[in-house]
TrEMBL record:
<keyword id="KW-0732">Signal</keyword>
<dbReference type="InterPro" id="IPR001638">
    <property type="entry name" value="Solute-binding_3/MltF_N"/>
</dbReference>
<feature type="domain" description="Solute-binding protein family 3/N-terminal">
    <location>
        <begin position="22"/>
        <end position="257"/>
    </location>
</feature>
<feature type="signal peptide">
    <location>
        <begin position="1"/>
        <end position="19"/>
    </location>
</feature>
<dbReference type="InterPro" id="IPR010067">
    <property type="entry name" value="ABC_SsuA_sub-bd"/>
</dbReference>
<dbReference type="GO" id="GO:0042597">
    <property type="term" value="C:periplasmic space"/>
</dbReference>
<dbReference type="GO" id="GO:0012505">
    <property type="term" value="C:endomembrane system"/>
</dbReference>
<dbReference type="GO" id="GO:0042626">
    <property type="term" value="F:ATPase-coupled transmembrane transporter activity"/>
</dbReference>
<dbReference type="GO" id="GO:0016020">
    <property type="term" value="C:membrane"/>
</dbReference>
<keyword id="KW-0997">Cell inner membrane</keyword>
<comment type="similarity">
    <text>Belongs to the bacterial solute-binding protein SsuA/TauA family.</text>
</comment>
<protein>
    <submittedName>
        <fullName>ABC transporter substrate-binding protein</fullName>
    </submittedName>
</protein>
<keyword id="KW-0813">Transport</keyword>
<keyword id="KW-0472">Membrane</keyword>
<keyword id="KW-1003">Cell membrane</keyword>
<dbReference type="InterPro" id="IPR044527">
    <property type="entry name" value="NrtA/CpmA_ABC-bd_dom"/>
</dbReference>
<dbReference type="Pfam" id="PF13379">
    <property type="entry name" value="NMT1_2"/>
</dbReference>
Length: 322
């Protein structure tokens, strides 16, 4: 009887240490999410998870949708901008940043038939961003302020219009907006269709030395499933290494994955340009992330900055990356 009881306790202990049999990960069809897109396309996550764990990929268009999914308990991990991640964390959504994914990789472009030669030229114009409170929205509000301008919701005359990045080419074609601050590859896609570059990724902020995408996880899920968390991070690092090893193969994987999500296929020239503007890697420049939290607060999306000791935990990815 004691032997049976001991065996039962051991089985229950093993089950409680690793509860999940499915892991759900959220992702966008953006080059700033390249590590995750490549890891999905090349089955690098699944390889690290093994046969006993099912990977379920959920596709999203912006950070607001990701936050809603985390709040509803519908996803376990996601690639998302630091702005939405901070705001969700400060609203009590149980998430934590466990790795960086990309730096820079966003540009300001204008329609080819609209004369905008600099940020001051945005006065009286409509500018698209992925969603309200997105990393690009926060960045746009910062560069407007530096140029002495304000958005209309702060008493100014620059109208900020939330549009999903994959829908921006159509918005430009229909003249719904005059310009956009958007992640790659959609900036390069718009340029290919006649848009003009107003600010490069380096001119947006800090010479491009700022985090555009992070990998976050549900804190409860990660605590209950440490092996799955490690496998996701390993797959993430595998995706980064795949991109760094072969730009050509990475372009093919990205093209296929973006097409699967959006039914739009960026060509080789677009993806080459998009990747050249985006630094894929797990590192996060902490000083600029802390400054970014202040920009987020100044933009009115948060009353304070997050407690970084709770918001950020890079210890495991640092260990695995060695």
């Amino acid at each position: 009887m004691k032997k049976i009881l001991l065996t039962t306790l051991l089985i229950l202990g093993a089950a409680s240490a690793q509860k999940a049999t499915t892991v759900r990960i959220g992702i966008f069809p953006n080059v700033t999410h390249a590590a995750g897109l490549v890891a999905v396309n090349q089955k690098l996550f699944q390889k690290e998870l093994g046969a006993g764990i099912k990977l379920e990929v959920k596709e999203f268009a912006n950070g607001s949708q990701i936050n809603e999914a985390f709040a509803a308990g519908a996803i376990d991990f996601a690639y998302v901008g630091p702005g939405p991640a901070m705001n969700a964390f400060m609203r009590g959504v149980p998430i934590q940043v466990i790795s960086g994914a990309a730096q820079a990789g966003a540009v300001l472009v204008s329609r080819g038939d609209v004369k905008i030669t600099g940020v001051k030229g945005l006065k009286g114009k409509k500018v698209a961003v992925p969603t309200r409170g997105s990393t690009q929205d926060i960045s746009l509000r910062y560069i407007l302020r530096e140029a002495g301008l304000k958005p209309t919701d702060q008493g100014g005359d620059v109208t900020i219009v939330p549009i999903n990045p994959a829908d921006m080419p159509a918005a430009f074609a229909s003249k719904q907006v005059d310009a956009a601050l958007v992640q790659e590859p959609w900036g390069a896609v718009l340029e290919q269709q006649g848009a003009r570059l107003v600010l490069s990724e380096r001119q947006i902020w800090k010479g491009g030395n700022y985090t555009t995408t992070v990998l976050v996880g549900n804190t409860t899920f990660m605590k209950e499933n440490p092996k799955i968390t490690e496998a996701i991070l390993k797959g993430h690092l595998d995706g980064i290494n795949y991109i760094k090893k072969s730009n050509v193969l990475a372009q093919k994987a990205l093209s296929n994955e973006i097409y699967d999500i959006t039914k739009q296929r960026p060509d080789q020239k677009v993806l080459f340009k998009a990747l050249s503007r985006t630094r894929i890697g797990w590192q996060i420049p902490l000083d600029t992330l802390e400054e970014y939290a202040e920009l987020n607060r100044d933009a009115g999306f948060a009353r304070a900055t997050p407690d970084f000791s709770q918001f950020l935990n890079l210890s495991l990815v640092q260990k695995l990356a060695k």
